[in-house]
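Structure (tokenized):
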């Protein structure tokens, strides 16, 4: 895997002439109502963090439904990944502050109007408190669950399409009482809605 990452990095350095691809519409217009889900609050990163990440657009909303289920929704969009900013994998960012990763796997999502897609899943824990994390890369018409495949497609599309735009999407749901299955069901429902809605914002193929 390290060889693969090193090879894609070297290849990217040799790709020139890629274009910055703007978002269709700002993520600030992302719906605060998604089916039965309502955004109750939002969070803005500091200017220093935004500059460090090199992100061109982002949102972080806290949604809840009528039954009290909660989801933290974060999306970051880059016009040209790797030329001014890039993704930070949750595998590296989440550990800390008492949280650790108990398991990493994948899960199938069925978005409305799309074929099923695969996204990454992490179970994280802080003592007896559990949360479930779903994340993926929604880039140039694809849903990519793997950091490694994201880099392979990034090189391919930079060469063939002259594009390096992409988005990182992360969802987090609490698992009260350690009920991982219920948290997974919550995220599967919300992820299906989010993927379909993001198609209205992110550049496609």
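Design, position by position:
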């Amino acid at each position: 895997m390290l060889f693969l990452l090193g090879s894609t990095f070297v290849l990217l350095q040799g790709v020139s002439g890629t274009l910055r691809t703007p978002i269709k519409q700002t993520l600030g217009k992302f719906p605060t109502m998604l089916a039965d889900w309502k955004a109750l609050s939002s969070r803005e990163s500091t200017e220093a963090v935004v500059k460090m990440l090199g992100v061109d657009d982002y949102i972080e909303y806290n949604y809840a439904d009528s039954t009290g289920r909660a989801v933290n929704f974060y999306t970051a969009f880059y016009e040209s990944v790797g030329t001014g900013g890039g993704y930070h994998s949750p595998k590296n960012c989440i550990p800390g502050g008492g949280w650790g990763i108990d398991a990493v796997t994948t899960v199938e999502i069925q978005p409305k109007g799309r074929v099923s897609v695969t996204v990454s899943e992490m179970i994280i824990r802080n003592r007896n408190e559990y949360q479930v994390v779903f994340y993926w890369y929604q880039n140039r018409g694809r849903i990519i669950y793997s950091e490694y495949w994201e880099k392979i497609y990034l090189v391919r599309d930079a060469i063939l399409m002259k594009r390096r735009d992409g988005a990182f999407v992360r969802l987090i749901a609490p698992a009260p009482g350690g009920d991982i299955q219920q948290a997974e069901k919550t995220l599967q429902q919300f992820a299906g809605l989010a993927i379909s809605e993001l198609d209205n914002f992110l550049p496609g193929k």
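Reviewer-requested clarification: The chain is about 25% helix and 35% strand. The longest strand covers residues 129-139.
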